[in-house]
Amino acid sequence: MANTSEENGGNLKKQLAKLFEASLRETVPSEPDVEPLVAACTAKFGDYQCNNAMSLWSKIKGKNTDFKGPPAVGQAIMRNLPPSEMIESCSVAGPGFVNIVLSKTWLAEKIQKMLIDGIDTWAPKISVRRAVVDFSSPNIAKEMHVGHLRSTIIGDTLARMLEFSNIDVLRRNHVGDWGTQFGMLIEFLFEKFPNFEDINERDIGDLQTFYKASKQRFDADCDFKERAQKAVVRLQGGEPKYREAWAQLCDISRKEFDKVYQRLGVHLEEKGESFYSPFIPGVIEALTNQGLVQESEGARVIFIEGINIPLIVVKSDGGYNYASTDLAALWYRLNEEKAEWIIYVTDVGQQQHFDMVFKAAKRAGWLPADDRIFPKASHVGFGLVLGDDGKRFRTRATEVVRLVDLLDEAKARSKAALVERGKAEEWTEEELEQTAEAIGYGAVKYADLKNNRLTNYTFNYDQMLNDKGNTAVYLLYAHARICSIIRKSGKDIEELKKTGVLVLAHPDERALGLHLLQFAETVEEACTNLLPNVLCEYLYNLSEYFTKFYSNCQVVGSAEETSRLLLCEATAVVMRKCFFLLGIVPVYKI
Known about the structure:
Layout lengths: L11 H16 L10 E3 L7 E3 L2 H8 L9 H10 L7 E7 L3 E6 L1 H14 L12 E5 L11 H19 L3 E6 L7 H12 L8 H4 L2 H14 L1 H15 L3 H25 L4 E2 L2 H4 L3 H10 L3 E4 L2 E4 L8 E4 L7 H14 L5 E7 L3 H13 L12 E7 L2 E2 L16 H18 L2 H4 L2 H21 L7 E2 L2 H4 L7 H18 L3 H7 L7 H11 L1 H10 L3 H21 L8 H21 L9
Parallel strand pairs: 5-6, 5-11, 6-7, 11-12, 13-14
Antiparallel strand pairs: 1-2, 2-4, 3-4, 8-9, 9-10
């Protein structure tokens, strides 16, 4: 019997691919490089399908072969499959598609094994040791806006999925803390507060207002503008007074950002633009020595094949820019942090910028030309957040919405709905607060993550807090219902895991069991393609499969109670891991 399950964890597709690989070697020894094409089935013929026959036929046709066409190749692939406990039956359909029906006994055993050994045994296996996820990255002294919200939510989920896959993830907050705006802010600070060392955030007040006031001064007063420009030079030259003022502004901003990160339960390590600044001259010198950097209209640039604008790495005034910082950061991440996969989560508008930076890195030999080989860099773009009017999401005064207010509003609405359902009388104040937070913040995250990230999405509280349809509220309630079924049985579920036996006799039990076992390959697909919506779709479908099972299969008080409680528990465990990967806190009672 072929034992494929150990090295491929819970990944059904990979386990089947291993069996088909052995069969293909046997069927067509003359074609050793053929990769098995295995996909989950949507038709009624089976659970999975191997689709190699047609492409194989086109390769071997006319080459001294006994086969008469794709169906015959399919038949041979099926015949040559090594015997395996996984497979209940096989058949060949149409032009050689090999359909596989998995053994329900084997499926049940695998689910039960996961319940005992833990869901981490179903973690994807990705051949990367360390990754950098660069996300959130707001600008110091400016308000975080909904674009930063998307970057923070998507980046956190990607980091969680990679961490679950046993990759060492460096979560990087590449804050904008080193631009020319700091000259203006520091000069304004000195003017307003001559004893700036003694002030705190209360004195400065709202940083956004402070920023605007300093910008107005900068635009209107030539003397101030000149002082501000000199202040940048003095700051970057390392003068203590300027460094101190800069650090103070950064600190006030950081406290504001942390209010958002705390609510979202997101952890980041800050390495801002200033961190990479000392590495820029050396990186540009190395690129120049390689002949990549050329003079153009007074600036120093790298020309990228196929793109008509060059990548400017030193401006005509001798200053550095985003490209200089991003190249230095990429160099640092590859050489100092030894990352094999570097992922940048920003809006789609920055796609071309990163494309040019990555192409420059390939020209320099930092990254391989082939994107399928590590180390590699990936840009994870996302669309806009829109209001109900179809325009960019803002408050009435055309100001960008403050994220803290936006999240607090979601929590307040969620709490009001719980109070309306009489939960204030049933629960403690702490339970009410925690549940309102889990649902409110979870609703905002899920409304973002369930869409393909490249599309724009409309921010609408009523839709995201609806308890019906594909929303976090519906899914959190579904999880709480499963927990309630297990509680009401009065059985010790930990004991049942050891003594009970899970059986998938009813068609709806089997369909739910199969979907549970597709968790590992789904997370792997979401990770590999950097698409969180793939996991959201899986989670929503899981709750639908569970609803169908629960509607047609009595759990508590039935002859199959033990087995069905184990199936309920397995569903709850997988749902909780999905929630965790999406950064959503589960709810256990409703």
